[in-house]
C-alpha cells in the first residue's frame, strides 16, 4: 500500500499536523500495524520536496510534529491519479509456495504435507478474520472480507495443486 | 478437565463403506466434542457426505464403528436409531428438506409436534426460532414462496428447535450466494454456540469452513482427526 498517497488523501479534507495525520491514518488504516512517527515525517518530507504538500503553519515549540501540512493542487491530482489506477493483481504468495512445493518434490519430502500445513494455516487466519468480522462494524467487515476472499483464492490453488501433485512430481523429477 | 467432559460426544473409528464397486470410505475417523463446530472438508466425491451419514446413523458402515455418547450406533435397533435422530440430532441439507405443503411456521414446529408437544406450544416455540433466524415475517408462507437464503434459515430453525446435541449440515450454503451463505453460517453457528449444540459442517468452501472451530479433511475416503482420543 502506498503510504504517501494515503497520507495525501487524508490531507484533502483540510490541513493537519504531523501527529494528527498519524492518528488519522492509524484509526482508519493502521489496524494491525500503526505508522511509525519516523515514517510519517520521512514521507511528508518527500511529498514536500515533490511539491505535493506545503507547510501551512508551525506551532510554537518546534519539532517536526508541530508542522501543519496542506495538500497542493499537484497533490490533489496525484491522489486522483492513484485512485483511478487499478492495483496490479500480485501473485505474491503462489511464487513462494510453488517454489517450496517443487523443492519438496525435488528433495523427496512430502509436498502433500507441506500443502496441508499451509491450508491449515490459511484456515486458521480465515477463522480469525471471520471472528473479527462478526464483532466489527461495516468497515471491519469489508476489510476482513477482502482478505478472506484472497485467502480463499490461495486455498483453492492449494487444493488444485494437491490434486495435481502426482502430475507435477512426474514433471519436475523427470 | 473431568473425564466425562473430555469424552467426545461422537466418535467414528476406521469407517469403511462401499456402494457396489465404489469405495466411499476407506478408513475415516473423526470425533466431535459437545458444543464444537467441526468442518468436514475435501474434494468432491471424497466421501464427506457418506461420513456425515454414517455419523448420523443414516448409513451403516461396512466396517468400523460410530459411538454416540459411548453407545455404538450399529448395536441399536432401527427404531432406537431413528428415535435418536429425532431427539438428539438436527439436519440441514443443501436443498428442499422443508415440507412444501406446510407453512414455514408449521415446518419449524414439526419436530416438536412429532415429539408430542401441543400445537400452540410448538408453534409459539417455532415462532421464536423464526425470529431468531431473522425470518419471522415468513411464518405464514410456504417454502415455495421464499428465497433460497430464507428457506435455509427456516431449515436451520427447524434443525435447532428441538434442542439437538448435534446438528448435521451438509453444504447448507451450497446453493446460496456468498452474502446469504455467510448470513446462514453466522446465524447457525451463533445459535449452536448459544444452545450448546455441536455442528458437523460438510463444506468444500473455505469461507464457510472458517465459521468452524476446527476442520478435518477427507481425501479418497480417508480422514485423520488429530483431536482423536483413542
Ligand atoms: N448411495 C450411493 N450409491 C452409490 N454410490 C454412492 C452413493 N453415495 C455415495 N456414493 C459414491 O461414494 C463416493 C463418495 O461420495 P460422497 O457423496 O460421500 O462424496 P462427497 O465428498 O460428499 O462429494 P460432494 O462434495 O460432491 O458432495 C462417490 O464416488 C459417490 O459416487
Ligand atoms: Mg456431498
3D architecture notes:
The complex is a heterodimer of chains A (174) and B (230). Chain A is mainly α and 174 residues long. Chain A has helices at 3-11, 18-30, 37-49, 73-84, 92-106, 111-135, 138-163, 165-172, and strands at residues 16-17, 53-58, 67-71. In chain A, strands 1-3-2 form a 3-stranded antiparallel β-sheet. In chain A, a hairpin with an 8-residue loop joins strand 2 and strand 3. The longest helix of chain A is centred in the last third of the chain and has 26 residues, at 138-163. The relative contact order of chain A is 0.10. The model of chain A has no long low-confidence stretch (mean pLDDT 85). In chain B, helix 6 runs parallel beside helix 7 (178-195). Chain B is α/β, with parallel strands linked by helices. Chain B has helices at residues 3-6, 48-55, 78-88, 104-114, 119-132, 148-160, 178-195, 206-209, and strands spanning 10-19, 22-32, 37-41, 63-68, 71-72, 89-92, 166-170, 198-202, 214-219, 222-223. Chain B has a 6-stranded mixed β-sheet with strand order 6-7-8-3-9-10, with helices on both faces. Chain B has a 4-stranded antiparallel β-sheet with strand order 2-1-4-5, covered by helices on one side. Helix content of chain B is 36%, strand content 24%. The interface between A and B is medium-sized, with 18 and 12 residues. The complex binds adenosine-5'-triphosphate and magnesium ion (MG). Adenosine-5'-triphosphate (ATP) binds next to strand 2 and helix 2 of chain B. Chain A: InterPro entries: Tscrpt_reg_PadR_N (IPR005149), WH-like_DNA-bd_sf (IPR036388), WH_DNA-bd_sf (IPR036390). Chain A: Residues 7-76 form the Transcription regulator PadR N-terminal domain. Chain A: It comes from Actinacidiphila epipremni.
